[in-house]
């Protein structure tokens, strides 16, 4: 099964793809109307526009550093997951998506990093909570949000994971407790982006790590929660993209292609032709 991730409405209908994911809200803050013929995607706590227009939304660490693109290795600005008003707006957007199509994908879910958030609201909520451990409290915040979102999604709930299967990292860095979240998520999506894919040993290593982490594989589909891999397709050499697809589908339930439907379509057609002719790109 192959899917496309796109901002262009017409591409979700291209016959090369078994499913289309359409960005209704992305990390820039750009918004679009949900489509009835696509899995609508919502960037939850990544939002540059919200962070710029309402600085009080942005998480801070214990030194007051704001979780924006001004910080090293931050590609977008974050919104604090405990901000009730912002969460209510997100849930309304998710409900609108689910009204258009019963399947919804949640992107950018979690805290920015392990040191966030130390805003006054988070300090108060943690102090008032039943938890002694801040990491456990953070995970409860994220789990509560995903549970509330999944209640509004009558079909499949997809949840994007940061591409880090190292034991404990998703929990400590983002507040994602996969053992608990699996009760609310039907399929995880792992973006493994590269601009070339000239080598793929790293892709295979990370994909294998997520198999171990989630307890799921194509050979044992009844165990654990399935995951799919999303590849970057923009201007990638088609042969390299075909090989990356071969690696990804060895580990994942489905393979999705991001932001270049034409190149993705070419890779799928090439791969299917090579499969018929017995050609391998390994």
What does this structure look like?
- Helix 8 links the parallel strand 7 (227-232) and strand 8.
- The protein has a single domain, classed as TIM Barrel.
- The chain starts with a strand and ends in a 5-residue tail after the last helix.
- Helix 8 packs across helix 9.
- It is globular, with a radius of gyration of 19 Å.
- It has helices at residues 48-53, 84-100, 120-128, 134-151, 169-174, 178-181, 201-214, 238-249, 261-277; strands spanning 2-6, 19-25, 39-43, 104-107, 157-160, 187-191, 227-232, 255-258.
- An eight-stranded parallel beta barrel has the order 1-2-3-4-5-6-7-8, surrounded by four helices.
- With 282 residues, it is α/β, with parallel strands linked by helices.
Layout of strands and helices, then pairs:
Elements: E1 2-6, E2 19-25, E3 39-43, H1 48-53, H2 84-100, E4 104-107, H3 120-128, H4 134-151, E5 157-160, H5 169-174, H6 178-181, E6 187-191, H7 201-214, E7 227-232, H8 238-249, E8 255-258, H9 261-277
Parallel strand pairs: 1-2, 1-8, 2-3, 3-4, 4-5, 5-6, 6-7, 7-8
Helix pairs in contact: 8-9
Return the CATH class. Answer: Alpha Beta
Distance N to C terminus: 20 Å
Number of strands: 8
Strands ordered across the widest β-sheet: 1-2-3-4-5-6-7-8
- Report the biggest beta sheet as strand number plus sense, adding barrel if it closes: 8 strands, parallel, barrel
Output the radius of gyration. 19 Å
CATH homologous superfamily assignment = Glycosidases
CATH architecture: Alpha-Beta Barrel
**Run of helices and strands:** EEEHHEHHEHHEHEHEH
Q: How many domains? A: 1
Number of helices: 9
**What is the share of helical residues?**
25-40%
As for the CATH topology, it is TIM Barrel
- Going by helix content, strand content and strand pairing, the class is alpha/beta
């Amino acid at each position: 099964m192959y899917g496309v991730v796109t901002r262009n409405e017409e591409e979700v209908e291209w016959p090369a793809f078994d499913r289309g994911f359409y960005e209704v809200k992305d990390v820039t803050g750009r918004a679009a109307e949900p489509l009835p013929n696509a899995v609508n995607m919502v960037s939850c706590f990544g939002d540059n526009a919200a962070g710029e227009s309402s600085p009080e939304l942005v998480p801070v660490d214990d030194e007051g550093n704001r979780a924006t693109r001004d910080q090293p290795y931050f590609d977008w600005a974050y919104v604090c997951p405990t901000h009730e008003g912002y969460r209510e707006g997100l849930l309304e957007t998710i409900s609108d998506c689910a009204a258009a199509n019963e399947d919804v994908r949640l992107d950018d879910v979690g805290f920015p990093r392990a040191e966030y958030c130390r805003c006054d609201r988070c300090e108060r909520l943690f102090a008032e909570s039943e938890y002694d451990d801040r990491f456990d409290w953070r995970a409860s915040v994220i789990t509560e949000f995903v549970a509330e979102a999944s209640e509004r999604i009558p079909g499949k709930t997809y949840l994007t994971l940061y591409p880090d299967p190292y034991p404990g990292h998703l929990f400590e860095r983002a507040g994602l407790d996969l053992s608990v979240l699996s009760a609310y998520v039907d399929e995880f999506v792992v973006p493994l982006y590269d601009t070339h894919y000239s080598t793929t040993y790293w892709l295979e290593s990370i994909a294998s790590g997520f198999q171990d982490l989630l307890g799921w594989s194509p050979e044992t589909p009844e165990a654990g929660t399935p995951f799919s891999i999303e590849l970057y397709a923009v201007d990638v050499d088609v042969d390299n993209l075909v090989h990356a697809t071969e690696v990804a589908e060895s580990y994942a339930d489905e393979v999705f292609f991001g932001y270049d439907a034409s190149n993705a379509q070419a890779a799928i057609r090439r791969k299917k032709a090579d499969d018929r002719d017995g050609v391998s790109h390994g």
